[in-house]
Amino acid sequence: MIYNYVGALQRDAPPASVRGEPVEPGLATTDITSQTATMAAQVVQAAKLLDGLIQNLPDVHRTEQEQLEAIASVQERVEAAGEELRAEDNRSEKPGGR
Fold first, then answer.
1. Digit-coded pLDDT (tens) for 26-55
2. Which CA distances in Å does 82 have to 72, 73, 91, 96?
3. Using alpha carbons only, what angle is made at residue 72 by residues 67 and 76, rounded to the nearest 5 degrees?
């Protein structure tokens, strides 16, 4: 979003000289001041929304050690489920299995 806004602001900005020379004004088709204020407000709103979403992520307030322990626990559960599925698959392939 911010890249689109910067591009629009660059595209719509009035001509300006880098050397301080007088520049003839271009055709103003947009109100750059209003557009800038609107885009700035939208960027701030999006940033606040993103911050809120990040704060609501589960486990975001855990320490690194607690996060590592949670990951290890999930990995153990995944491995156990995988073993259970492999065992079930082996039973179903054998004659007389399910």
1. 666 667 778 888 888 999 999 999 999 988
2. 15, 14, 14, 23
3. 150
